[in-house]
Specification:
This protein has helices spanning 24-33, 37-40, 48-53, 55-66, 71-81, 98-102, 143-149, 154-163; strands at residues 10-11, 16-19, 85-87, 106-111, 115-120. It starts with 9 loop residues before the first strand and ends in a 10-residue tail after the last helix. It is α+β, with helices and mostly antiparallel strands and 173 residues long.
Length: 173
């Protein structure tokens, strides 16, 4: 099933929608709503086992149907039919996504060199709390300390830095 070439979000007239009619009732309601009730009684699609055997055909048919209307139409129809569905967002649209805003998914930090930087928050909460997002270390920021922890002498570390074999950022890097 997962290897079927049509198993992906469906293209609409103005974007893409991820929708998953799953149960026999979902599929029956879907085909009735799109004016193709005969598909609901098609032996290839009437049960989950039959749909699984003919999944590529089914998904290709649905792709053709969904391509005829816009995303808002399919979201409204799926809501009415109780079929799980969601719009596929573009990367630049994610910060304005109502669900992501409501869950506080993005966190903004101030980086002294780059200014305001937006990160995705931790996707899970423990006891209702998420671990805070922090700025990652700069390239080479901890080189000296790590080499010292590995047992290298200050002189050896200086030699590695001078030769370019190890890196340590300057104040302006």
């Amino acid at each position: 099933r997962v290897l079927a070439p049509w198993r992906r979000p469906y293209q609409t007239t103005d974007g893409h929608v991820a929708m998953m009619p799953y149960t026999d009732a979902h599929w029956r309601k879907f085909f009735e709503a799109v004016g193709q009730p005969e598909r609901a009684s098609d032996a290839r699609f009437v049960t989950m086992a039959a749909r699984t055997q003919h999944i590529a055909e089914l998904l290709e048919i649905v792709s053709g149907i969904v391509a005829q209307r816009n995303t808002a139409h399919w979201l409204a129809l799926c809501e009415q039919l109780e079929i799980p569905a969601a719009p596929v967002r573009r990367l630049e649209d994610l910060p304005q996504d109502p669900h992501l805003q409501a869950t506080g998914f993005f966190e903004t930090l101030h980086d002294p060199r780059m200014g305001e930087v937006r990160f995705t928050g931790m996707p899970v909460r423990f006891n209702g709390e998420r671990n805070p997002v922090s700025l990652p270390p700069r390239l080479g920021e901890h080189t000296r300390a790590q080499l010292q922890a590995a047992g290298l002498s200050h002189e050896h570390i200086d030699t590695l830095m001078t030769s370019g074999a190890a890196f340590e950022p300057t104040q302006h890097s």
